[in-house]
Amino acid sequence: MEISLTTKQTIANRFLTDGKDRAILFGGAKGGGKSFLLVLWGIEWLDWLIKFFDIKKSKYPPALGFIGRKRAVDFNDTTLEVFKKTIPQSLYNIRSQEKEIVYKDMAKICYGGLDDEININKFNSAEYCFIGIDQAEETSRSDVSVLQATLRYTYRGKVPPYKELYTANPAECWLKEDFVLNNRKNAIFIPALPNDNPYLPQNYKETLINAFSYDPSLLSAYLEGDWDAFANLDDAVFKSKDIEKCREVRVDEDRDEEDSMRIISADVATKHGDAYTVILYRVGHTIKSIDIYKNIPTTKIAFLIKRLYEQKQANCLVVDSDGFGEGVADVLKAQNIGCTEFHGGYGYEAIDQRRYRNLRTQFYDITSRKVERAMYSFLELPQKEYETLKSQMASLKLKAPDGMGRKQIETKEDMRARGVKSPDLADALVYSEYAFFVGRMSD
């Protein structure tokens, strides 16, 4: 294969193919050639490993690496398509059922999503020489740590250099801490901007400006590779530094669980599609647990909520009752479980209608002000749930005041329009604050 690399891709490839253990973050803007580098390097490094281990053709070739994305469907629709366009088909065979790319009948690369239970279970026993994650800003540190632990493959006593490649656009996430701020040993950040890629259309810069001029922070991130573009924005509902403070504090008033208000909140999703159902449990202002479920029916959701409610002897329960949550609330009420319904749609009036456009905005604002004063404790949450919650909270934005000058936050439709997924965990936190308010009012 004779393929020309950009200068930045060449620099990254030099580190990715040397004789040392390396972790590389490549990218930081749109149009830098991130996915292209990942698939090309994956095959080049596989070729090198075959020679290093002196591997011969076999009916059962060894799996030497893994490439993927957070979601399997995104990998299949994007990265895998780049692979097919870049690598000559005569060199490999894709086993879609097993999610394997067999190269020259000598070695193979496993592929897929970090949301795939089959893959996750496979990682527990897998041994690889390299991993590559495309659009790694979508992942949490916990997602990737399971993969990093697989870097232990040896063959006939030979130990290879272990390699990690992460491609990403700027975001407030673990990549910024480890690579951009240089907090991880042997971690190298190689920024690649649209201007660094001579193979893009000449007008691509103007294309990005036209596409993202409505949002200066997105434009700064995607065009200039600014990793601080989303940190502590004036229009951010939550500031990252405030969320991080809540990870460090313990709220004294909540140490006595018997005397504190015990609250369960639920953000309910359909059993189809990619949305998640989230069940949050808090004691006073300490968030104790966040359970995340996918593709389960409303009857099962109601059962899980009821079981937790009874186990924790909760004082208050609130369910998002727009859409499928309404059915869950009905099931719980039919079983004599006291259930408060939260309606977060754009048109539902706030309690304080003078200041807020709708109820969702009012309780996001109340939650935000409490986060700013470090009134919550996220200390007891597992790392994965905390990072997901933090990422979702940091992604929310305020909109311009409405015609009456009232505060309003963006809708989920607004978020989808700028490529941000539904903030299910953040919503569950806000619903719990509504339950706290209702509980205090009834005291």
Main β-sheet: number of strands, strand sense, barrel status? Answer: 8 strands, mixed
Q: Quaternary arrangement of the chains shown? A: single chain
Give the end-to-end Cα distance, rounded to a whole number of Å: 73 Å
Using the alpha-carbon principal axes, give the shape: globular
Instruction: Sketch the topology as an H/E string, one letter per element.
Output: HEHEHEEEHEHEHEHHHEEEHEHEHHEEHH
Mean pLDDT: 90
Structural class: alpha/beta
CATH architecture assignment of the largest domain: 2-Layer Sandwich
The whole-angstrom Rg is 24 Å
Low-confidence stretches: none
Helix tally equals 15
Portion in helices = 25-40%
Number of strands: 15
Which fold does the CATH topology of the largest domain refer to?
A: Nucleotidyltransferase, domain 5
User: Largest beta sheet: what is the strand line-up?
Assistant: 3-4-5-2-6-7-1-8
How much of the sequence lies in strands comes to: 15-25%
What is the CATH C level class of the largest domain, in words? Alpha Beta
- As for the number of domains, it is 2
